Structure prediction request, 290 residues.
Amino acid sequence: MSITRQNLSVIIVSYKSDYVIENCINSIHSEIEIVVVDNSNNDQLKEKIETKYKNVKYILSKENLGMGAGNNLGIKNVNKDFVLILNPDVTLEKSSIDEMIIASQEIENFGIIAPLSDKSEYPNYTLKKMNDFDPIKPFKVKSVDGYAMLLNLKKLKKLNGFYFFDENFFLYLENEDLCLRLEKNDENIYIVPKSRIHHLGGKAVDPKYKNEIEYLRNWHWMWSKFYFNKKHYGYLIALFKVFKNLISAKIKFFYYLITFNTFKRKIYQMRLLGLMSSMIGKNSYYRPNI
Prediction:
């Protein structure tokens, strides 16, 4: 089955994203259903968006679920065969969805397809082989970034014991985990090069919360890195993968401590705390002080 505008929903997980989310919504055709999962529980924004956009269903999550659980909540609230996962700081080009629809008619056997980021210096995919890239035709990849990925729900739901996003990940690598599990199930992941998007990159949250979000990102990057490797390769491999990060964070923490750089000191403190929490088996509990 190929994609149509009628059997596709778009899921946007937001958190303090008031200043960018309308740009994202405006770039999506009004015929397509959009589900916004708001992790900041902003009832005023919910009223504004649902009044302005008749194709948007706005869900208040009541707590900050993070990306994995937020996307899963969105998936539970759609009854379509396909969902396009978008970050709120992503905008689509006019033909982005149409190009994915065309591609789905050519490559019916896919678990995920994704558009191509317009920032070629920051590719939103990992190639299986260096020469697999094709500037025109859809090409297979090992994984795609989570800020723009289209899931074939109908196909994935038929996989034995398969689940969508691992909710242990609050932030970072939930997309890598999903792609790796699909690869183990011999499912295909494609990039559609004619489908283009623009990603602001790390701009989904209002800039006035910049410092707190930096602390959050650093804590969860290290937590997720260790958990991801432990889950797929075992504890010792995970320890090996993060050892340099651990030593570097310790050195930089003490350096910025003695040089009285409070912001940088806390960045590396967050890295250490996130990593150590993951190493001793604690869940991804840290939340921003907003």
In short: The two ends are 44 Å apart (CA to CA). The chain has two domains: 8-199, 207-279.
